[in-house]
Amino acid sequence: MQVTSTGPQTIQKAQGDNVTLGCEYTVGPSDIGELDIEWSSVSPDTTQKDELIISFTGNQKYTHGTLALAEGVDFTATDPSKGDASVTISSLTSAHTGTYQCKVRKGPGVDMRKVTLVVLVRPSAPKCWMEGSETVGGAISLHCKSSEGTTPITYVWKKGSAGVLPPNVTQNSVTGELLIANHSESSEGTYQCEAQNAVGTSRCRFILHVVRPPNKSGVIVGIVVGVFLLVILLLMFIWFLFCLWDKRRYQKKVANEIREDATAHLSRTPSRFSGRRSMAAYSSVRSTTSRASGRRSPDSWLLGAGPENRYSYPG
């Protein structure tokens, strides 16, 4: 009995992939006993028993072990008695990581083979971001980081379709940092970061721009013009307030003068009552004078003389 499979003793696969653990064998002329095939998970502790996963004996297949370890495990060949005792494990998980042993026995012959399987996690899609200013002459750091993935993870930056980096940059493959010491037009463009480990690669992109510093003389001229316009607007506003105040002051003065003229006019005009008293006094004086002179006053009819005076004649 001889197990003839060759190949790597350690196999690395990504989580979710499928893997085949080879165990092909040949039977010797003296091997006349019953065929018995066993696949076991070898315990890292030598004081513990190995865990039987799957077996083939008496032309029957049997599954053993815990569900997490035995799930997805099956013989690759439909009939393992034909010389192929290889097994296939589908949808690998971290629980499948370990050393497996294939033992083929057909009395009196027996042989075995061990294979170590390492289930790794591909790098997750990395995040790309920038620290620093895109202004010409400034320093910029581009960063790349995967949140998941089996270490070690290597980060590689490339620029454009050619993947050639400018001469003024340096990168750290462990931390994923790309340092641009003196940003210029030559460093402008699209950058791609690849996060790699033994079982996969993930990428992210970042577009780097160039910002040219503003024209300082133009900024100064703009500030001066703006201040000048602001002063003009302020003076116009003050002039408007002054005009408004002067107009109100003039209206108030005119109103006061009209009020004073009206008061003076009323004080000069006699009242009706006072006028009657004056006329009566005048009439009385004329009547007295007329009687004294024995003549009738020519104004007696107009000045309202009494009836006794209306028909008096001089004696």
Structure description:
It is a single chain. With 315 residues, the protein is of the alpha+beta class. Helices cover 26% and strands 32% of the residues. It is built from 4 helices and 18 strands. The strands form 5 sheets. The chain has a 6-stranded mixed beta sheet with strand order 2-11-10-5-6-7, with no helix packed on it. It has a 4-stranded antiparallel beta sheet with strand order 12-13-16-15, with no helix packed on it. A 3-stranded antiparallel beta sheet has the order 3-9-8, with no helix packed on it. The chain is elongated, with a radius of gyration of 61 Å. Mean pLDDT is 83; it is low at 271-278 and 288-315.
Radius of gyration, CA atoms, in whole angstroms: 61 Å
| Unreliable parts | 271-278, 288-315
Question: Major β-sheet, in short?
Answer: 6 strands, mixed
H and E order = EEEEEEEHEEEEEEEEEEEHHH
Number of helices: 4
Strand numbers in spatial order across the main sheet: 2-11-10-5-6-7
Protein structure class: alpha+beta
Shape assignment: elongated
Terminal CA distance reads: 195 Å
Helix content: 25-40%
In what range is the share of β-strand residues? 25-35%
Oligomer: single chain
| Average residue pLDDT | 83
What is the number of E strands?
A: 18
